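Data availability (excerpt). All sequences and predicted token strings are deposited with the supplementary files. A representative entry, Phosphodiesterase, is shown inline so that the format can be inspected without opening the archive.
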Amino acid sequence: MGRCFCPGPVLPSPQFGPMSKSLLLYHCHTILDFLSRGCCEEPVHDSTSILCGFGEVEQENNVHQSHSHLAMPITINDVPPCISQLLDNEESWDFNIFELEAVTHKRPLVYLGLKVFSRFGVCEFLNCSETTLRAWFQVIEANYHSSNAYHNSTHAADVLHATAFFLGKERVKGSLDQLDEVAALIAATVHDVDHPGRTNSFLCNAGSELAVLYNDTAVLESHHTALAFQLTVKDTKCNIFKNIDRNHYRTLRQAIIDMVLATEMTKHFEHVNKFVNSINKPMAAEIEGSDCECNPAGKNFPENQILIKRMMIKCADVANPCRPLDLCIEWAGRISEEYFAQTDEEKRQGLPVVMPVFDRNTCSIPKSQISFIDYFITDMFDAWDAFAHLPALMQHLADNYKHWKTLDDLKCKSLRLPSDS
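Structure token line:
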């Protein structure tokens, strides 16, 4: 297969701030290794020390694994039957992303992405070939770290799946333009690219290079968007934006950036409150026939479209508690393990322990899930459900909450009762 992208010089465009030398060397190393192995292989990440800008990080090496070689499809019609059969169900909320992860040898993003983007006519909108889109997905997926328990390309594929599901809901579809849909799908795909498996607080406390670069503000989210665009535009073979005009590109780019930055949790409650006050309350007043002069959600209100897109990707990003119970449990185990690893690392390095509850020796996973749902999920999904109408998700949320409460009442700290394992 031909070269997908070239680790050329830092882009001088003001759209892309210059990368530091060590970050550039890191990405060049990754790219060169990826190219030397072929686009179907996974890059070797020796560690996150170069990425994070300090030598003591001891994250598990993302050593290349000898997966059985799985040829990348030329088009969506060329995927192996076992994958194609799974993807037949991708429009269902109960779609099992972990089965796709297994059958694609930890490359679910390319396959799900091609199917979803085809369904939404993304190639036609961007005027790019499916070959270019496939190359882009491969580049993006290669820059997710498969050694991360949670923040890997399976999570990206899961968020893409949720975003596509939300875009199919009648009120969401009626409120957004096709550019919004395309931007949302791209944002979901890239929203955690090159995530090191550590939180923003960890990177800031460690004085990492990324934290210095982004002034301790939305460090990872800024990095995800910047890297995504740098990887995309470096080579025409994977530049999905190469055939759209400058103004179109700028609008699309801004929408993608805005959505990815909205996944940063320090402004979580601000985003939810804006959505409730600007979307839900006026909508309820309109439905009730109120005389209130409030703007309903719709295509004539760009400010409302922005709020809808932010809320959509935020919900997609943390939709795990609203998945079927078996999927919810698997995600809870994965995020807990990633947080345990961070706490282990903080203790080894003498850094502040950001999340002391996630100590693998003392943590109650049910309690952590109950707290997460109570603090972040319930109000946000109540608001999103009021707009998008998602009864099945809300039922899953109630069932899953009951599962965690039952375990907690029984003083069980694990994912399931021992008899259920």
